[in-house]
Amino acid sequence: MCFYIQDLSGIPPLFDRLILMVIDGLPAEFVLGKDGQPPRKDLMDAMPYTQSLLSSGMAIGYHAKAAPPTVTMPRLKAMVSGAIGGFLDVAFNFNTQALLDDNLLGQFLRIGWKMVMLGDETWLKLFPGLFVRHDGVSSFFVKDTVQVDQNVTRHLGNELSRDDWNLLVLHYLGLDHVGHIGGRSSSLMGPKLLEMDEVVKMIHLSTIQAHDHDQGRTLLVVVSDHGMTESGNHGGSSYEETDSLALFIGLKNQVSHYLSPTHNSVLQVDIAPTLALLYGVPIPKNNVGVVISGTFDSSTDDQQLRALELNSWQLYRLVEAQLSGLSCGDFACRGFFGDLASGSGECSGSIEETLCCLFMNAANLHNSWKYKKEKGSESRDDYRSTIAAYHEFLKTASEWLSRRVTDKPVSLHASGVVAMAVSCLIFLGLITCISREVYTGEKQHLSNSSNSKMTWCLEEGFILGVVLILVMSMGSSSMIEEEQYIWNFVICTLYLLLLRKAVQSPSGRSGSALLLKAQNRRSDVQVCAILLLLISARILRGWHQGGVNWTHLPDISKWLEQGGSNTIRLVQLTSGLLMMSLGLFALFLFVSKTKLVQVVGFFFLISGFLVLWHIMEYQDNALVSSNYRATLLAQIIYATLGIGTVGTVIALPWLMPIQISSACSKHKTNSSTSVSFDIQYKFPLVELRDSSYLIGLVYMLCWCLLQLLLQQPINSMPIFLLLMQILTNMLYCSYNRPQNKEWLEVALLYYMGMAGHFALGNSNTLATIDVAGAFIGLSSHSTLLSGILMFIITYASPMLVLLSMVMYISVKDTSYLATSQNVDLGHFMKMMLAFPCLVPLGLNSILLTAYTIVLLLMRNHLFVWSVFSPKYLYVCATTVCIYIGVFVVAATEIYTYMVLAFRRKLQVSIGNGVL
């Protein structure tokens, strides 16, 4: 094609050297202000030298909008390649791979540049072997806000005095870490901004103002990869997170551009073509950005139009590769070399026709301007029309190419959906088959009861209706952003339905007075339990104003934070003491008052007091998070909780006293049945229930203590409320009759876990992930350990509910199994584990399959990157959480049963030998 033979010269390099200074997490409004207004006075005072450069016209600044996900690695790739990556870059951000796409650094290497990098080691992973000198630091150890920047600045003076490099990359991480620890309003933010201002001053005075020496002209570009929310997090698509900075220092500019809110808004991908043209290298071939025209204000009209022309050619080639039906190539060649035509008229029709029309319009206007210039008859109106035509094409092509990033082979997606649908049907089929078998046995067991009918009830219909509600809501971006409202509605409605059922009076039913008294007592307990669940659910609902659109509204957490750190610490200590009291109360309700229970209680008390000690000593001030003693104490807590939990699970089945049940006694006195003695050692029901109760309680209490250590201090009370909700729910389930369907109770627990997930302040945006808590107890960065802790913090509530399934198995009435004639290991495991394991897997499988279909349908949606893609990451992570939790429950119950069955069989064998 004729474009490829065009000479790419015409714009001489304006600079010889480039210093790219990345201030990680710096919102542009800290430097340029917002909505046409300058920054706050305290922010301007924190960066006086930078503000003086802007006001004097020696620097030009832009709000460079970053595309989601707003995490470091994909944003660096966007700045150096001009391409928008996939949303899976969020996962790859923790394990960065080499960048193979065409990029600026590769172009600089081809022309013989020498490059130096100081700072975030992500650059070394993206460009291995490219830098002649480097000193990288980990970007994930957020507790470090000092050394991580001093390690960069200590080399700076030496590097600025040397002339053996052309590109110097400085990536400062401290400001981002300050945000993660204390948010935008952290007391460390001002000093950190002043530190960055001093670096800018050092570079400007030593290089840019001295550009007439042998080292040549130097351009300093200060950028940020993303912004941050008020809490200091990032990853989502809110204005605060996408508001990144692009500051060019060394360009000749006469206007303070932060006073012009329309002129200074660009895209982050626009940095790549701008730097490429400023330094005379080809624009990266996958770039979708548009050259920032304001950076060429000092260039001639010819050079400015040439920059737009080169950018248009590059985008046109990219469009041509995407649209096989694009047919304006020949016309484009004739436009450049044939008869000149005036580009005019409106462009409409298909995307191919529109893009071709816009491109030809700009090209013809440019050729007309050049022709008139040769004749000496060009005018400023012709020049402005050409500029406008180029910008119209560049804007349209850039937006269309940015959306095309989501296009993937539909056949590959469809095969994945089919596989998920098959697994979903398998789970649902298993649940249906086991339901028939279980409830057939229950009916036989309850055949003598007057209330043995297994009728379909309102709450069961609602449980199934919730699945339909969730699936339908997935197609709405607003419902995904505010998903917490769905779960709050679901859980409260279910509680009200159960309350309605519980308050139905048993009077008038046939039966003895003793039976009616027991029914009344059961009903009273259930009513009290549900009222407690409703109260706690309402408190959890008001604790965090979650979601995306309404986070600014008041809530309980904001009200407590206004009271200061002492108020929050008091809430933490109160929550810890209440949690310990509730745990001990549940523990000593254990039917077997053995020394084993006392040992478990002592272990729980020790762990609880260690956590309270950590709260009193080290969680009052975020600045001590890197304290060695705080780290050591946190590691001791990890070890205590881990060893205690694992030790309890392993040792308890071996230490649990084996009891002689009534079946064995009847066998000794009157061996009228042939299976009772066999059941005695094949079905150790009493010991299994006791063991499951104790192990399940240890799981939950240790998990809550761990969350008390890791979660944000304001979340301590919600953790206690979640524990209280689960134990109350266990009380309700234990007073239910066997004919109340078990899958309904398991589904209720699953829904409770999801409601609690949002009650802890989580949402479907990555910005609510607590990064700072993932480094508590870590003395150095570990991607694996910090990732595990981050997962533990994020999925605190769903995992707590899954771990509670171990206790749930122990509180359900399964006495009908003891009379079964087919009791064996497989039958027992199926009856006991079927619903606690299969129901969460089945529900999650439905939601995963449905959302995969939604994402496939929404792949070209305007909010695919900002809403649908992060939600899908959460859905996948929730799937991992469900499978881990189900595995723990199943492994625990199988191990416990096998040990108890072995001990019972061994005891019976010894008893037979004695007899």
Number of strands: 8
On the 0-100 scale, what is the average pLDDT?
81
Mind describing the biggest β-sheet? 8 strands, mixed
Report the helical percentage. 55-70%
Straight-line N-to-C gap: 99 Å
Overview of the structural elements:
This protein has about 900 residues and is mainly alpha-helical. The protein has an 8-stranded mixed β-sheet. Helix 17 (about 410-445) runs antiparallel to helix 33 (about 825-855). Residues about 1-5, about 255-260, about 330-345, about 450-455, about 620-625 and about 660-685 have low confidence and may be disordered.
Describe the secondary-structure layout:
Elements (H helix, E strand, L loop, with lengths): L16 E7 L5 H4 L8 H6 L1 H8 L3 E7 L6 H10 L7 H4 L11 H7 L4 E6 L1 H5 L6 E5 L9 H14 L6 E6 L1 H9 L6 H20 L9 E6 L15 H4 E7 L15 E3 L3 H8 L22 H22 L6 H9 L13 H25 L4 H25 L5 H36 L12 H16 L3 H5 L1 H20 L10 H31 L12 H6 L3 H23 L7 H24 L9 H28 L6 H8 L6 H7 L2 H26 L5 H19 L7 H18 L23 H12 L1 H16 L13 H33 L6 H51 L1
Can I get a quick summary?
By secondary structure, the chain is mainly alpha-helical. Helix content is 61%, strand content 5%.
Q: Top keywords for this entry?
A:
34 helices, 915 residues
